[in-house]
Amino acid sequence: MNHHRHQSFLIVLAMLLPAAGHCAAAEAPAKAFYKQPPLFSTAPSDSASSQLIENNRPSDAYRAEHLSDGKDSTCWAEGAEGPGIGEWVQFGFDTPKPVKALKIIAGYPKTPAVFQANNRVKKVMIVFSDGESQTATLADQKEFQRVLIDRDKPTRFVKLVIMEVYKGTKYDDTCVSEVEFEYK
Q1: What is the pLDDT of residues 132-161, one digit of tens each?
Q2: Would residue 32 count as lying in a domain?
Q3: Total of domains in the chain
Q4: pTM (two decimals)
Q5: CA–CA separation, 108 vs 114, rounded Å?
Q6: Are the CB atoms for 106 and 174 separated by under 8 Å?
Q7: Is residue 5 part of a domain?
Q8: What is the pLDDT of residues 92-111, one digit of tens each?
Q9: Which residues constitute the domain of residue 96?
C-alpha cells in the first residue's frame, strides 16, 4: 500500500514540475486575468452570536460559514434557547462596501419537510458598521428574497438580527440557508 502511495506521489510531482531543461521563469510572464466582481457576492468573513450543536452531528454542522457556501442544502442554525430572537449573524468586508441589496434564503430548504420543521426568519434587523439599521419583513418561502438597502454609505459589516420567526412544526431552532450581497 505504501509503495502505491509513494508511486502516486511521484507521478503527481512529475506532472507539477517543469520538464528537464525548461525553466518556467524564462517564459514570458503570464497575463493576469481579473474578473469583474459578481453582481451578488458573499462576504469574506461570517460570524454569529451562537450556533446549534447536536449530539449526532459534527460540531460545525450549522456554522455561519454555511451562509456563503452557495448551497441551500446547508444552513446556519442559531443555538440559543427558544426561537433565537436577538441572535445574529454578521458578515465582515475587507474594505467598506456600499451595499445596495441583500438576498436571503430565510429557512432551511434542504427538503420541504426540513423547511417546515424548523423556524424561519420573519422579521430581521439589518445593522451596519456605523450603527444605522433598518428592518425587513420576509415571506415564508424557500427561495431567495431580495431586500433593498435604504442607504448610500459604505459599511464594514452587515449584521442580521432575528426579530421574529415563522414557527417550525418540530424544532425551535431558527435557520438561514444563504445570504448574498449586491453592491452599488
Answers
A1: 999 999 999 999 999 999 999 999 999 999
A2: no
A3: 1
A4: 0.76
A5: 7
A6: no
A7: no
A8: 998 999 999 999 999 999 99
A9: 40-183
